[in-house]
Design goal:
With 176 residues, the protein is mostly helical. The chain is 67% helix and 6% strand. Strands 1-2 form a two-stranded antiparallel ribbon. GO terms for molecular function: DNA binding.
């Protein structure tokens, strides 16, 4: 079966890429970390695991001497995860999917070589520079028309993107 993984699916694959985990352990990771923004509900985690299993991206492994089982990523799952890591960064990713980009980066270390990780950050940086420039240009031409709270929110958007850009630059330096 060919499935199109969701961001939740990729987060699960990222969690189990190095070690198999029980469904409960996966759910706890989502509950207790920032991954919870993708969902921590048993009503989404367990169906996602079933979908990944059905799609051949994970396999369920029974624990010896226990009724418990865990989930392990398959070779196909690793390939799909790696291709997600290597997917080119586009303008829409920087505009609307920063958290997904950070999720990709956060999980890529063991599957992607250092040069590819640096390339990812450089691409991220380049798209951010273009996007910040567009935001600043728009603000200069239209900001005077905005109500005060609109201006402040827009300024927050510019500043938060500048902070992400600063992080990209520091991360590149740490990797080189």
């Amino acid at each position: 079966m060919n499935i199109k993984p969701t961001v939740l699916d990729f987060a699960i694959l990222g969690l189990i890429q190095d070690n198999s985990l029980s469904g409960y352990a996966i759910r706890k990771m989502f509950e207790e970390t920032a991954l919870g923004s993708y969902s921590s509900s048993p009503g989404t985690i367990y169906p996602a695991l079933k979908r990944l299993q059905k799609g051949g991206l994970v396999e369920k492994i029974s624990q010896i001497d226990s009724a418990k089982s865990s989930f392990k990523i398959t070779q196909q799952g690793l390939l799909i995860l790696k291709s997600w890591f290597l997917k080119p960064i586009e303008k829409v990713d920087v505009e609307k999917k920063i958290n997904e980009l950070l999720l990709r980066f956060g999980f890529m270390e063991s599957l992607i070589d250092k040069q590819q990780r640096i390339h990812f950050l450089i691409s991220f940086q380049e798209e951010l520079i273009k996007y910040i420039s567009e935001l600043e240009t728009y603000y200069k031409s239209e900001g005077f028309k905005m109500p005060l709270h609109g201006k402040l929110a827009f300024q927050y958007g510019i500043e938060s993107n500048k902070t992400t850009l600063k992080w990209c630059k520091k991360s590149i330096l740490q990797l080189t």
